[in-house]
């Protein structure tokens, strides 16, 4: 069972980007803890399929309740429709805004369209999820929880990261503003900040059309020495993180054990942000 004392068996949990990586593990863990889980992702199976069973099927095979809804989180109306659809299961209790993409380029090489795309998915997608869930929880008078996936990049700059770090900084501030506005209504909003996690992150980025995709690709050789300038040179715990390392943080922040925790950025990074 999960790592929290919270009983999720009456809860409906939406996880964006639950087809692979961190989101998949978070969805599986909420499913294990009894929740009805809705996976809102661009695709049902990862682009580079290393998994035989889609997330919602894996949850069902383990005896849980889950469904997949094809969703592009950069489309705010689509995100609102997922939240609306959750009413079929009693309405959203926990919204996990996790979908995200990674692109890098030096500032001077970054194309406006690339910047806009990263912001549309990573920042506007989280805004859309927070807003839709909050509106629905307020309408229903539900004291729910929202957990966003931020990053060490929310607070620490890295060379070549103008798009990604700007988007993750926005996630952190959206989390704090939403937390302050929604606290009087009993809705808590927090964020998990992963360090370097072993997923296919970056490889599974959405198809964005040949011509545009080409223009987004900037060879590492065009960048200043990335290794020498990334935040910290080592992970103090001396290993990369895994989705399994992350999932418990989401269940904690969404549950009763975190009843007095809101607006918090919880690093799960093996100490990476400390160095
Ligand atoms: P991943 O690529 O395995 O998973 C991302 C998921 O989001 C995929 O299933 C993908 O299909 C989905 N997605 C992408 N664009 C989408 C869109 N427009 N609409 C709906 N779904 C979309 O990567 P991951 O490592 O599991 O990343 C999950 C989150 O964790 C991201 O927000 C990422 O920024 C964050 N993060 C990852 C790391 C890391 O090192 N892996 C570190 C810090 C933060």
TrEMBL record:
Gene Ontology MF annotations: oxidoreductase activity, acting on the CH-OH group of donors, NAD or NADP as acceptor
Segments crossing the lipid bilayer: none
Pfam family membership, one: adh_short_C2
Entry-linked InterPro entries: KR_dom, NAD(P)-bd_dom_sf, SDR_fam
Annotated ranges, domain Ketoreductase: 11-199
PANTHER family: SHORT-CHAIN DEHYDROGENASE_REDUCTASE, SHORT-CHAIN DEHYDROGENASES/REDUCTASES FAMILY MEMBER
Membership in a protein family: Belongs to the short-chain dehydrogenases/reductases (SDR) family.
Name of this chain's protein: 3-oxoacyl-[acyl-carrier-protein] reductase
Species annotation: Halarchaeum grantii
Recorded name of the encoding gene: fabG
